[in-house]
Design a protein that fits this description.
By secondary structure, the chain is of the alpha+beta class. The chain has one domain: CheC-like (Chemotaxis protein chec). It is built from six helices and seven strands. The chain has helices spanning 6-31, 47-55, 83-94, 105-130, 146-151, 185-201, and strands spanning 35-46, 62-71, 75-82, 134-136, 140-144, 160-170, 174-183. Strand 6 and strand 7 (174-183) form a beta hairpin. Helix 1 runs antiparallel to helix 4 (105-130) and helix 3 (83-94) crosses helix 4 (105-130). The longest helix is centred in the first third of the chain and has 26 residues, at 6-31.
């Protein structure tokens, strides 16, 4: 497991929360309701442990959005919410009550739009730290257990992932989600090296 210092963790968290503030403003306009986004936790974990965090909890299924990223770093970005919370988000957006298995293409597109905004905020933060461009693919809706969701993307269980807890606050309720960045080893090492360089320059 990759250990990061409290200083590194605080620096990453601060930059992520700045980007999340901008994403929250966009989402507030979409849902006509004040949205607050924050990242209270950042960690680096093996892929299998990150997946197990969901399967060991009381959450049976997760739903969310995934995007491939390339450029300065290569890997996959995933935004996941517990299944029932995904339904809450869809209802807020579309005013409909449906089981997750019956989500229509329009409803999945609505989730993808939200996922695209939040994931782009995270990816933009990483690009700001690296001072390089990162490209993202079109968002794609995913659904399953933690292990199923993580196995959707290529890779092995020893891959390290950047694991973020995201607090999604609405006037009517609070929703906890998770963002994971599955980066290849070179990308991860380059990110940490650039992170240290910026911290030392402060």
């Amino acid at each position: 497991m990759l250990e990061i210092s409290e200083l590194q963790r605080d620096y990453i968290t601060e930059i992520l929360n700045i980007s999340m503030g901008s994403a929250a403003s966009v989402l507030s306009e979409m849902v006509s309701e004040e949205v607050a986004l924050s990242v209270p936790e950042v960690d680096f974990l093996p892929r299998s442990i990150a997946a197990g965090k969901f399967d060991q909890s009381n959450v049976s299924k997760m739903s969310g959005v995934t995007q491939s990223i390339s450029g300065a770093v290569y890997g996959d970005a995933l935004l996941m919410f517990p299944e029932e919370k995904t339904l809450s988000i869809v209802r807020i957006l579309l005013g409909e009550t449906v089981p997750v298995e019956s989500l229509t293409e329009m409803e999945q597109e609505a989730m993808c739009e939200i996922g695209n905004i939040i994931l782009n905020a995270v990816v933009s933060s990483i690009a700001d730290i690296l001072k390089k461009e990162i490209m993202s693919s079109l968002p794609r809706f995913i659904h399953g257990t933690g292990n199923e969701v993580f196995s959707v993307e290529s890779g092995n269980n020893d891959d390290l992932v950047m694991f973020l807890k995201v607090d999604f606050g609405l006037e009517s309720q609070s929703i906890n989600g998770y963002v994971t960045l599955i980066l290849n080893v070179d990308s991860l090492q380059g990110f940490i090296a650039q992170l240290d360089e910026q911290i030392n320059a402060i």
